[in-house]
Every structure is written in C-alpha cells, then in structure tokens.
C-alpha cells in the first residue's frame, strides 16, 4: 500500500476507535497505540525521509496533519472525560450551602420584645409621624412658643415650619384624639435632636413612649408597670425609684431611676457607686394635655413615660457606644 494511503487508513481507524472510548485509561492506551513512539504512524513518519522528494513532501504533509488532528481529538476527549468525572463526584446527599441571610437590627429586636411585653399587659402599639407639626411636638404638650422649656430639646426645623419630632410624646395627644379614654399604649419610634454626637448621644435615636389613661390612675400604677416591664426585659428583678423632675406635659413630673443593671445595685463605676441609674422621664399627664387630646381631666387621669430605647439596649447587651447602632458595622450587627 502507498504510504499516503496507509496514513489515511490509520487515521480512519483511529477515529473509529476513539468514538467508543469513555474512560481516561482507555484514552491513554489509545493515545499510546496511535501516537506513541512505537505506533505505526511514528514508524511511518521515521521512514518518510527515505522517500523520493515528491512523495516525501506529500507524505510528510499528510502525516503531520493526521498527527495533529489525532492529538487534538485526544485533548478534547480528555477534558470532557475529566468534566464527566467531576460531575460523578457530586454527592447529592451533601447538605446544601446555607445562603447568608440578614436578620433584625438589635433596635428592632428589643423593640419587638417590648411590644410583646406591653401587649401582654393590654397596651396597644401606636405610631406617629417623624416629621411632626410644631403643635403636636410642643404646643399640645403644654410647651408654648414663648416657654423656656422649648430650649430643653434642640430641634431640627424644616423650612415649612414643621419639626423632626424631638421626642415620641406628640403621639400621646394624637392617640387621645384618635381613641379617647380609657387608653393604654406604647409608641416606639425614631426621634431627632440637633446635638453633637458622642459615645452616649446620637442626633437620631429611639424612644419608647408609654401612656395609660383611665379612672383613678396614680403614680402607683406607673411604678408597677415600670417594674414589671423592666424586670421582664432585663430578666432580673429590677427596682425603680422616682425623683422630682420637670416636663411641662406632666404634673407631677419625675425622673425615674432603676437599680444598676451592671452591679445589681451594689455600686460600681457605671452608676457612680450609687446603685441607681437614671432611666426615664415620667409623670401624671398634665390636665392641659388631656384637654388637648379631648379627654376630660375631671373624669380621667393618666401616667406617661418616655425612655431612650438605645440606652436600654446598651444596658441589656453592655454596649458602650450608641453610635454603633447607626454604624452599619456588620461585625457589631452579627452578634445579635
Ligand atoms: N418626652 C420626654 C423626653 O424626651 C420624656 C417624657 C415622656 C417625660 C413622658 C415625661 C413623660 O425627655
């Protein structure tokens, strides 16, 4: 047989064989037999140099072409066999990878806990606008424009004359107008103060307002409710005490302290060795505020309180910088 014919025949047969190959080891022996040093093709290629010039050129060309083609076929098959092998290694019983999911912010978490506690005590959860009118934020709360108490809270005003609410107390009057008496609510929300920030002050923070209006509500009710929800949120017995404090919308008004959560009242650096921590403003709702809400102060009385939610969370989780809440720092947030 003519050498060119023989090379073509080798190629044809090799291609036929390779079709049936489905393992790496078969491919290896096919490669060896077709392209190896002892293969017929290699042998023929070694003989080409002895051929007459004309024939040598043609045979050389064909032989190189065939060799290259077979090498390419081998490479392609090799990679597709490897691919198949990898797929065979997929263990379908292997547990799936859990996609990372976000979770609630610590402020939302504790807010929900508080909402559950107060709901169980018969309180409704009320909401109000963050962009508030001057009337609800101040006037309706017995803080007229000329009153020096306006200076107690540094305020963001809008060009239109509204305010970013400086506290959650405006929800008191809004709710009285909406529901009348009797009434029990808490109102958690964001509040805004035009102040410099530091480790314990942020210009955006959270408050929880509490309001209970009924016949014959007294300070005793306020103290009982405060002790109850604080003991439940801190999961330990908490005592409270009241000192006189001034807020135009309550009379009498108080500052309420609680037993230091860090030392259980024994006295530590956090409570300046007193065993007590300042916690919230509170008092009996001022008759003018009840009137603004359309409730007859002769018939009903009530207590109100307001505390910083961020500060409560800081105590609960021993967090030392309020600015972490708005930092968006995942290392902080992941711990909750
Ligand atoms: N609104 C007051 C504050 O922001 C807190 C407070 C609420 C005081 C209700 C008394 C009664 O400081």
Q: What do you see in this structure?
A:
The chain is rod-shaped and about 125 Å long. It is 40% helix and 18% strand. α1 (3-18) runs parallel beside α4 and α2 (24-35) packs antiparallel against α4 (53-88). It has helices at residues 3-18, 24-35, 40-47, 53-88, 106-120, 134-137, 170-179, 219-234, 287-292, 309-317, 330-333, and strands at residues 124-125, 131-132, 163-164, 183-192, 204-214, 240-244, 250-259, 276-285, 301-308. 30% of the residues are buried. It has 11 helices and 9 strands. β6 and β7 (250-259) form a beta hairpin. The protein has 336 residues and is of the alpha+beta class. It folds into 2 domains: 3-89; 106-333, BirA Bifunctional Protein, domain 2 (2-Layer Sandwich), CATH 3.30.930.10. The model has no long low-confidence stretch (mean pLDDT 93). The strands form 2 sheets. A 7-stranded mixed beta sheet has the order 1-4-5-9-8-7-6. The protein binds phenylalanine. Phenylalanine binds at residues 167, 169, 247, 250, 281-283, 304-306.
SSE succession: HHHHHEEHEHEEHEEEHEHH
Helix content: 40-55%
Query: How many beta-strand segments?
Result: 9
> Nearest-angstrom radius of gyration?
41 Å
The stretches of 5 or more residues where confidence is low (pLDDT under 50) are none
Proportion in β-strands = 15-25%
- The CATH class of the largest domain turns out to be Alpha Beta
Total count of domains: 2
Which whole number gives the mean pLDDT? 93
Main sheet attributes: strand count, strand direction, barrel closure:
7 strands, mixed
What is the CATH architecture term of the largest domain?
A: 2-Layer Sandwich
Bound molecules: phenylalanine
Fill in the CATH topology of the largest domain: BirA Bifunctional Protein, domain 2
